[in-house]
Amino acid sequence: MAQLLANADGEQLRSLIEKLYGVHEATDTLIEAHLLQKRPKALNEHIRERIRRVKQGRSFIDWRASDAFSRDIDVLVDDIEQLAEQDVIGGFDLIDALINTHSAVYARADDSSGMIGFSYRQATAMWLKIAMTARQSGFLDKNWPEEVYQRHLQNDYAVWDSLLANSRELLTEDELNRLAVRFESDLINCLDERENTTSRFAYLTAATGLKGVAEALQNASLYARATTLVSPQPNTLQLRDLVEFCLRVGDPQAALNWHAKGDWPAQSNDGSDLLDRIYQQTGNSQALYELRKQRYRSTPSYEHLQKLIELTTTDEASKFRHNAPAVAQEINNLGSALEFLMHLEQYELAQEKVLQHSDQLSQLFYGNLENYAKTFAMHHMPLAAALCYRALIDDILSEARYKAYHYAARYFKQLIKLDDKITDYRGALIHADYLEKLKNRHGRKRAFWTKVGE
Known about the structure:
The protein has 454 residues and is mostly helical. It has helices at residues 2-7, 10-20, 25-35, 40-56, 66-84, 88-99, 102-106, 115-137, 144-153, 173-191, 197-217, 220-230, 236-248, 252-259, 270-282, 285-298, 302-309, 314-329, 334-343, 347-356, 366-378, 382-398, 405-419, 431-442, 446-453. Among the domains are: 11-142; 346-453. InterPro entries: DUF6880 (IPR049245).
């Protein structure tokens, strides 16, 4: 295409554009905006009219149309950026006007896909970029802290969520600190009135505002202040958020202090994962080694093994690898044991695990079970593969998942092929008996049997 365009003359391109124009509204818009690039006043009017149509539109935007609508917003943002390079004041007015259409748009849209919201957030990033250019060039004399503050207050649909956090280049450190004082004052004033619905929204707005300023300043203590004013005793989710923020801004000691306050659930990896990251940032290699060794012993897995041997000597790593198959065999959970053994490429041990615990195969994740079946078949272990396929078939038919019957039929055809390769079913039903059992239980599911016979 690039070569064809390079070889085309002006008359050819003109003819092409004339033929394209009128075929599709979106294409027409692209052509018009492109041709107006060197006429900023006309381009401004063209963009403004498109924004007006966005705001005043009345037709409902269902989820199927949301993708195309979001692309229209994206094109508007690109065109505004082009204009702002020539007319920063006009560009700022237009990007501000575009974002201000969001309430009207959301009132008539199904954005369950999130595409429209994503496009408006991209517009917010462009607002910030143009605002920074306008301020640095001196073209716009505005009270920028107030501009940012007011937009945060008008954030009903979360389109301005990232504004404060990314405002470091627009606002000075002193301005951000004054905004922090303002948001903290707002928050304190709202806390006593939380039972009132309006006040509840106001205190959440103030709290997120204070956190946004903390993000911009990379200030862990300010972020913690925004949390503890609302929740003096942060819960586990809030503590995780605090720890992650401290790690993001490079304050591992504060992260460690907050982590120590948590009652991390034993069945969750959150607490240990966070502690691992803390020890990495602090450079405490001994504590990191002990943590990873304890995790490998308590919940052995291939991932935990790999993380552990990153910190060991060559001899220690060899010992851990040598013992890993035996460790994997001792895991009670079939899915965890198989996942570990498969990563170790210990297929015969994995086969034995399947044969010993075939009654648990139905509890495994569908995708993993299918992969295990294929892996066993590829490594000439037909019985283990057949048992995995049987579990998949039984699950689909027992749940009467009609739309998956073609998968079940495909698995059944694999069973027929595998049966020829199995010399000993080792106590499992032979294929003929399994077929009889299947017909007794699911003989009336004709859609399945029809697909088997195809």
